Amino acid sequence: MEQGRRPSGNHWSSEGTPSHYRLKLWQQAVALVSQVYALTSDLPAEERFGLVSQMRRSAISVPSNIAEGAARGSSQEMIRFLKIARGSLMELDTQLAICEELGLVHSPDSVFQPLRKLYGQINNLIGAREARKAK
Question: How far apart are CA 105 and CA 98, in angstroms?
Fold first, then answer.
């Protein structure tokens, strides 16, 4: 794409910023990715292609799916991608629990707490969108 040009579509603001950048949910999901990267950088080297890779992919999937849902333009599509993001959060939650069980992390609350808060926010948004759609 040429510099200074932006794709057309209602998911871009008049300033050329994608609409998902304005979503607090997306911003918090991006912050969670940073927290997961920090936590996984301390995991043993032999986990680089196992838990580290899987946890990072799960974390990255969350804001990516929120962004894709926002770009689709319909409430039904947004709900679908929010549900995918929610599933990725539960993958990450499980991977964190495994790390804790294996003694690989000792204070996963720095990631567990924002993860669970984000999970609740996604559930609330899904519920609100589904209720609006049902009317």
Answer: 9
Q: What does the alpha-carbon distance between residue 133 and residue 79 come to, in Å, rounded to a whole number?
A: 10
Instruction: Please name which of 42, 75, 40 lies closest in space to residue 57, comparing C-alpha atoms.
Output: 40
**How far from each other are the two terminal CA atoms of the chain, in whole angstroms?**
40
d(CA 9, CA 70): 11
What domains can be seen in the chain, in order of their start residue?
A: 19-134 (1.20.1440.60)
List beta partners, residue 12. 18
pTM comes to 0.84
Nearest to 26 by CA among 129, 132, 130, 125: 125
Q: Per DSSP, what are the bridge partners of residue 18?
A: 12
Inter-CA distances, 135 with 55, 77, 83, Å: 38, 17, 20
Hey, which residues does 55 pair with through a beta bridge?
Answer: none
Q: Of the spans 5-9, 40-44, 64-68, 111-115, which averages the highest pLDDT?
A: 64-68
